[in-house]
């Protein structure tokens, strides 16, 4: 590997291209992330395709009202990701692919999300010990 | 739960659900069955047919807890599919369940949520003419 | 670290995550057969069935699961996905074992493990 500066290696990179609401892939990705965090590891999620919708600040903190449980509290996807980033204390990060962000018109990410060009995908992969590609975009 | 009066202008509709488990963390209460519960009052009649893997939504069990821990957040608002099927029945929906899928997955039809109707696939199709429209949701 | 460091004797360790399974369509079992081929070639293969992939563990005669077991692969089933789908009320293959997500995390953070998600 080139470069004199020590690069940080993340334990797991999840390239999440499958869309929310298409299946339980987002739930699985977050559960796996949490399991790696629980054993002291570090996780990065690279969100592509409609997975870029997960972190839109237009969600606010909560989902829309549940008409069958108006008093219930239902955190929004972006609130969940924001909380995981905060709780991870540097061990959990979320990257939004800038091309997919533009392509889907999902341009209003919460500030905790890093924006990266797809030209940096390979660099990001090299920065992880393990990469899983969760396809579906 | 009381049966909601259906006085809406919409036609009678049979909703067929053959793709289950389309998002837990991001969907929470806002899943396909909730949509039917929330909207059915607008229709003269609305019923549901569960096919394929979606039949498992109508199988009673007592192990699954609709909860996941993500960071310091315990998200205990994941979809409760069986509870929604019970709500459908309570609100006057006819809930039809494909017997072939139930038996192929090894379930005894007696384990289905009380009030649902287990039918052979051809019998399910035989119900279609009773409705103005059939929607695969 | 070179992630492609060859494990002993030229074999690799695979952790194959199947999220679709044999109820997702006619070719859905092909990924499990990839696991069979890898195991028969001498690689270590662990299969983790998750989401709708857990349906492949139902019953005692799923051909892909039988072949994986015969080839020496370990077949794990995500307990959350199985419970979500009420699979405690049915019979699972004797070749599979219910595990938590921590098992997947442990495997995927092993030094030489190659993870693949389908």
Automatic annotation (TrEMBL), chain C:
InterPro entries: DsrEFH-like. This is Sulfur reduction protein DsrE. It comes from Streptomyces alkaliphilus.
């Amino acid at each position: 590997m080139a470069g004199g500066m020590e690069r940080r290696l993340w334990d797991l990179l999840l390239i999440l291209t499958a869309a929310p609401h298409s299946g339980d892939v987002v739930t699985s990705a977050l559960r796996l992330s949490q399991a790696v965090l629980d054993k002291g590891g570090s996780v990065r999620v690279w969100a592509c395709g409609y997975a870029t919708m997960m972190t839109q600040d237009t969600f606010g903190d909560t989902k829309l009202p549940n008409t069958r449980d108006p008093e219930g509290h239902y955190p929004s996807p972006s609130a969940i990701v924001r909380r995981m980033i905060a709780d991870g204390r540097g061990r959990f990060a979320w990257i939004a692919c800038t091309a997919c962000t533009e392509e889907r018109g999902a341009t209003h990410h919460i500030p905790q999300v890093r924006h990266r060009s797809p030209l940096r995908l390979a660099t990001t992969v090299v920065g992880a010990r393990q990469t899983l590609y969760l396809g579906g975009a | 739960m009381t049966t909601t009066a259906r006085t809406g202008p919409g036609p009678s509709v049979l909703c067929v659900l053959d793709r289950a488990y389309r998002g837990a963390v991001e969907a929470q209460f806002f899943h396909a069955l909730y949509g039917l519960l929330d909207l059915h009052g607008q229709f003269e009649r609305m019923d549901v047919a569960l096919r394929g893997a979606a039949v498992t939504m109508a199988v009673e069990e007592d192990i699954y807890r609709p909860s996941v821990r993500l960071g310091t957040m315990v998200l205990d608002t994941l979809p409760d599919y069986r509870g929604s099927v019970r709500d459908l029945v309570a609100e006057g929906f006819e809930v039809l369940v494909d017997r072939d899928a139930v038996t192929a997955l090894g379930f005894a039809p007696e384990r289905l949520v009380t009030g649902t109707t287990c039918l052979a696939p051809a019998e399910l199709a035989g119900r279609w003419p009773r409705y103005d429209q059939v929607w695969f949701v | 670290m070179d992630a492609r460091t060859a494990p002993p004797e030229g074999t690799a360790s695979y952790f194959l995550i199947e999220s679709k399974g044999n109820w997702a369509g006619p070719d859905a079992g092909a990924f499990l057969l990839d696991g069979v081929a890898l195991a028969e070639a001498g690689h270590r293969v662990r299969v983790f069935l998750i989401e709708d992939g857990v349906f492949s563990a139902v019953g005692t005669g799923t051909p892909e699961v039988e072949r994986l077991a015969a080839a020496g692969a370990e077949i794990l089933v995500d307990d959350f996905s199985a419970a979500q789908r009420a699979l405690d009320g049915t019979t699972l293959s004797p070749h599979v074992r219910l595990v938590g997500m921590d098992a997947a995390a442990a495997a995927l953070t092993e030094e030489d493990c190659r993870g693949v998600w389908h």
